Predict the structure of dCMP deaminase.
Amino acid sequence: MAIVGQDVERKDWDTYFMDIAYMVSTRSRCPRRHVGAVLVQGKKLLGTAYNGAPMGVQDCSEAGCMIAEEWEIKQENGEEQMIKKQRCIRTIHAEQNLLLFTDRADREGSTVYVTDQPCWTCANMLANSGIKEVVYHRGYPKDSEKVVTLMGHKGIAFRFLEGYEPPPQAGMSVIS
Ligand SMILES: [Zn+2]
Ligand SMILES: [Zn+2]
């Protein structure tokens, strides 16, 4: 008797957990960026989180994004340029929510899969959280250099998941 589905290529663990992170990200109500993060110990899923307003507080879909403007220095053709950037500060970032809703004991030596490369604040918190590895997919160049340096100092593996394709129902274009 033929076993149905036997020919279907089996997902590797990285794809499996990143797919879950992307599905979790669809819960986010910030139209600018849907971020999902999951905590994995061994092959066990110990927590999921996405970016959002605190529980019981109006989110971006109800109250609109809370926009903060800031200037960023960018090198272009050897010249320093000031570029005005906007970001939404209404939400608690996915990585921060993941830390709020998991136990320290569960985090020791664990891996975080996150759809987006962590910002500086999240990376700083992750660096102090007991985790030993971060796997991300979409880049966040603004903080990349200092985040990579920090992870190196802490001996936390920091991996970009190359060649990965998000599930079609979970991918979105990101406003940067
Ligand atoms: Zn927002
Ligand atoms: Zn962050």
Notes: Helices lie at 13-25, 60-63, 94-100, 104-107, 120-127, 141-154.
